[in-house]
Backbone:
C-alpha cells in the first residue's frame, strides 16, 4: 500500500511528537554507532568482554551446530568416498597429506638440530598443550577472520596462546570468556607470523590476506629465493609461536615474496590444540606480532 | 518449503473469533533478525567471507516488506546485537544499520509504489554499500582484505536476498496467524 505523501498525522500533538522522536532516535542511532566505532578503533579491546559474554551465552547452540556440521561433513565425505573409489582411498589420501607434513617437520627438525649444535647454550622449554578444543563458529560473513572455540578460561586458555591443528598452525587466542574463546586465524589481515623456509631457514613474515591465503614477505630483500611448492614453518622469533610448526606452502611467487596456501584449513579441523606461548621471554619486540602483549608470552 | 505447512494449519483451524497474538506480531521480526545475525557464524568455519550477512538481509527484508513495523531506531538495538557476533569493529553494525534504516525510510517516502524488482535493486545497492563500508571499517581496524575478496560475497548476498525476503514473508504469515480467542 502506498503511504500518504503528507505524513503529518492530523493535528494530534501526540502522534506528531512520536513521529518526530522516531526520526530523532533513528539519527541518534547512527551517531551512537559512529561513536562506538571510533571508540573500538581507538581501543580495540574495549568491547571484547561484551563479545566474550555473548559467545559464552551462544556456546551451547554453537556446540550443537558444530556437531551437526561435523556429522554433515562426515556424511558428505563418506558418500563421496564411496562414489569415488571407496572410503579407503580417502583415508589413504589423508594419511599421505599427514605424512607429507611429517616429512616437512622432520626436515625442519634436522635443520633445527644443525643450527642448535652450532649455537650450543640456547636452552628451550617444552611447550605443553593446554587443552584440545572444538571450533564452534567463525565470522563467515565478515572480512575479519575470527573463530570461536568451545573452551575458555575454565580450561586454562589465556589470550596470546597459539592454536594449532594436526596439519599446522591455525592462529592465536584473541580474547577469552568463561567457556569460550576467540581465535584470530592466521589468514586474518591483522595476523603476522614469523616464518622460515623449512628446507634452509630463509626468514620471512606471513601476513593474512583475508581470503584463505598468506602474503609472505621476506626479511632479507634481494633476489627472491622462494619457489612454488616451498614449505614454510614457524621460526619461533618473538617467542609466541613454537618453532617448526608447519604453516603454509608457497603457491605463487611475487617480486618481493610470495602468496602461500595455508596447510590447515580451519573448516576441516574438527578439534584444535591450544598450546602455551613458546619462549619464556619474548626477546625481539620487532619480530613479535603487533597486537600480542609480550607479558602474555612471559606469563606462563 | 514452509508455505504448505502454514497454509494447511491456517485452513484447518477456525479463524472466526480469532486474532493474532500481539507478542508474536510484534516480536517475530526482532527475533528473526537476531537469529539471522547469529546463524552465519555457525554454518561453517570459513577462510574467506563467503556467506551473505543474513542478519542485515533479514533486517532490510522486514523493513521493505512492512514499512514502519520496525521503528526507524531499530537499527540501534539490532545492530548492537549483530555487533556481538560479526567480528567487525564494535559499533559498525549500529552505524550502518541505522543509516540503512533512515535511507530505506527515505526511499519509502519517495517511491511509495514499488514492485519486487525495484526493491531488489534498492536492496542490492544497499548490500553492496554495506559490505564495502564494513570492509573499510575492518581495514581501519587492521584486518586488511582485498576488494577481490568482497566481490564474490556481494554477488552471493545479492542472489540470497530474494530467498531471505521469501523466508521473511513466510515469517510474516506466521506472525499474523490468528491463534488468540477473542471474546
Residues:
Amino acid at each position: 500500500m502506498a503511504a500518504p505523501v503528507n505524513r503529518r498525522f492530523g493535528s494530534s500533538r501526540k502522534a506528531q511528537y512520536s513521529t518526530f522522536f522516531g526520526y530523532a532516535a533513528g539519527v541518534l542511532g547512527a551517531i551512537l554507532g559512529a561513536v562506538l566505532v571510533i571508540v573500538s578503533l581507538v581501543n580495540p579491546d574495549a568491547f571484547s568482554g561484551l563479545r566474550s559474554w555473548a559467545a559464552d551465552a551462544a556456546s551451547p547452540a554453537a556446540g550443537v551446530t558444530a556437531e551437526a556440521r561435523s556429522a554433515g561433513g562426515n556424511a558428505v565425505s563418506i558418500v563421496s568416498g564411496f562414489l569415488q573409489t571407496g572410503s579407503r582411498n580417502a583415508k589413504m589420501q589423508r594419511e599421505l597429506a599427514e605424512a607429507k607434513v611429517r616429512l616437512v617437520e622432520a626436515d625442519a627438525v634436522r635443520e633445527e638440530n644443525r643450527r642448535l649444535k652450532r649455537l650450543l647454550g640456547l636452552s628451550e622449554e617444552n611447550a605443553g598443550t593446554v587443552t584440545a578444543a572444538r571450533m564452534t563458529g567463525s565470522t563467515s560473513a565478515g572480512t575479519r577472520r575470527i573463530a570461536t572455540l568451545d573452551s575458555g578460561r575454565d580450561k586454562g586458555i589465556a589470550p596470546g596462546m597459539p592454536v594449532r591443528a594436526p596439519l599446522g598452525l591455525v592462529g592465536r587466542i584473541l580474547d577469552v570468556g568463561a567457556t569460550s574463546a576467540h581465535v584470530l586465524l592466521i589468514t586474518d589481515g591483522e595476523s603476522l607470523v614469523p616464518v622460515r623456509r623449512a628446507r634452509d631457514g630463509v626468514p620471512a613474515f606471513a601476513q593474512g590476506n583475508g581470503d584463505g591465503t598468506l602474503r609472505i614477505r621476506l626479511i632479507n630483500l634481494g633476489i627472491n629465493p622462494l619457489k612454488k611448492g616451498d614449505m614454510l614453518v614457524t621460526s619461533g622469533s618473538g617467542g609466541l609461536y613454537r618453532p617448526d610448526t608447519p604453516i603454509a606452502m608457497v603457491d605463487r611467487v611475487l617480486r618481493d615474496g610470495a602468496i602461500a596456501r595455508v596447510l590447515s584449513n580451519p573448516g576441516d579441523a574438527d578439534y584444535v590444540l591450544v598450546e602455551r606461548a613458546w619462549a619464556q621471554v619474548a626477546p625481539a619486540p620487532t619480530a613479535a606480532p603487533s597486537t600480542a602483549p609480550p607479558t602474555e608470552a612471559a606469563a606462563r | 518449503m514452509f508455505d504448505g505447512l502454514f497454509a494447511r494449519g491456517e485452513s484447518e483451524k477456525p479463524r472466526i473469533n480469532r486474532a493474532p497474538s500481539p507478542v508474536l506480531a510484534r516480536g517475530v521480526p526482532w527475533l528473526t533478525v537476531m537469529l539471522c545475525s547469529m546463524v552465519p557464524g555457525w554454518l561453517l568455519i570459513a577462510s574467506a567471507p563467503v556467506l551473505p550477512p543474513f542478519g542485515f538481509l533479514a533486517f532490510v527484508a522486514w523493513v521493505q516488506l512492512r514499512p514502519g513495523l520496525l521503528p526507524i531506531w531499530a537499527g540501534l538495538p539490532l545492530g548492537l546485537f549483530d555487533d556481538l557476533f560479526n567480528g567487525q569493529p564494535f559499533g559498525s553494525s549500529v552505524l550502518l544499520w541505522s543509516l540503512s534504516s533512515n535511507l530505506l525510510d527515505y526511499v519509502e517516502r519517495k517511491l511509495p509504489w514499488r514492485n519486487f524488482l525495484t526493491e531488489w535493486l534498492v536492496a542490492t545497492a544497499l548490500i553492496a554499500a554495506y559490505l564495502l563500508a564494513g570492509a573499510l571499517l575492518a581495514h581501519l581496524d587492521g584486518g586488511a582484505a582485498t576488494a577481490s575478496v568482497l566481490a564474490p560475497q556481494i554477488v552471493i548476498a545479492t542472489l540470497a536476498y530474494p530467498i531471505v525476503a521469501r523466508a521473511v514473508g513466510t515469517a510474516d504469515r506466521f506472525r499474523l496467524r490468528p491463534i488468540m480467542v477473542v471474546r
Summary: The mean pLDDT of chain B is 85. The beta strands of chain B are 18-20, 178-181. Residues 147-175 of chain B form the longest helix (29 residues).
